[in-house]
From TrEMBL:
One Pfam family, short name: Ligase_CoA_2
Identification of the protein by name: acetate--CoA ligase (ADP-forming)
Keywords, in A-Z order: ATP-binding, Ligase, Nucleotide-binding
SUPFAM superfamilies: NAD(P)-binding Rossmann-fold domains, Succinyl-CoA synthetase domains
SMART domains: CoA_binding
EC identifiers of the protein: 6.2.1.13
Presence of keyword Iron: no
Enzyme class (EC, first level): ligase
Catalytic activity: acetate + ATP + CoA = acetyl-CoA + ADP + phosphate
Database matches in Gene3D superfamilies: NAD(P)-binding Rossmann-like Domain, Succinyl-CoA synthetase domains
Gene Ontology MF terms: acetate-CoA ligase (ADP-forming) activity; ATP binding
Domain of life assignment: Archaea
Amino acid sequence: MHFFFYPSSVAVFGSFKRGAIAYEILRNILEGGFEGEIIPVNPKGGEVEIAGNRIDIFKTLEKSVDVAIIAIPARFVPPLIEEIGDKIKGAVVISAGFSEVGNAELEKELLEKAKEKGVRIIGPNCAGIFGVHASFFGSFEVRVNKGGLALISQSGAFGGAALAMGNEEGIGFSAFVSYGNAADLNESDFLRYFADDANTKAIALYIEGVRDGRRFMDALKYAAQKKPVIILKAGKSKSGSKAAQSHTGSLAGSYEIYKAAFTQSGAIEVEEMEELFDAAKVFEMYAKAGKRVAIITNSGGPGVLATDKAEKLGLEIAELSKGTIEELRSFLPPQCSTKNPIDLIADADYERYKRTIEVVAKDENVDSILVICVPPIFIPSEEIAKAVMDAECEKPIIVNFMAGELVKGGVELLEKHGIKNFPTPERAAKALKWLTLRE
């Protein structure tokens, strides 16, 4: 499937009137910086203007390309595959109107034509694909930053929302695929592919249901052994299961069966979109961590909240060694608490944070550190961010800077240096929990 996500050439089929789906996909590919050959195709021919450039529209596909992106009425898709099948390796079928609306025969015909020609199909009824490291944005969804997360989504609309949210959360993506009805390629194929993709550090999967449970389990185990697989499962309730079946035509099945499969394979299940991106952020920074956590804060309340959440999640609040406590007492003001959680009190500055992180990091009883900062108005958040960045520490550090405009500068500085912020103590604690699942 490499050609889907790292193509050298692409043809786009559909209407190229401004606002049409094929037009928006073509615009995304061009504006996204794709350097391969791009061929717009429509029987009427003509030309299209995008970003100040006028591009010829071909009436038929005359030369071979890696990928065809198809956004035409459903009934015309099987004949088109028959027509161009010898000139393409794969097709991304955006068109809806197949099994998801009860038109299973048309979908069957599409698959038969593709198999006859040796063409692989993504879709139909999908939102397209991104190969971010190839600057290939073959979708009408918002473009994203280059990074290590591959997002596999059964739902196109969910995928689009997730990409937009990922941009806001500072996530970097390696790829995105919306596979819709999964007439040919499905979640199992993509799990195996991204497990072996060098640019992918973690895989996020949104599913409603799967058709071949055994194949899915095998693929999930294969992928989870190689890198973190984060799963958001929809259709857990009885009503949700029915809704999922009508959405993509897949069988949602018993949630308990899925839950057991996730656990057995070593995948990480999350409950909501916010958690999906928190998990993605933490795995972009670190591969794993132990359960013993040290909490460093300048505010007692958030430190207590983090402690409560950590213990509830099964993490251990590390018992600091006598040597660590004595060293902390040697430079911290007497008002500070040197027990875990370590409270540096409100006026904690660069030096106090930096030295504390470095001392705690040397403690053999500590596997990871959670740094909380609620800066007073007289200490810029950038100062504490710099302390986190400058501290000599070889153990995972998770940061919780809060809140809003008060810490915006510090959070931006951290993110420039690859350190992601978790905006609440509870979310930061949960991020550490996910790291322990990869031990």
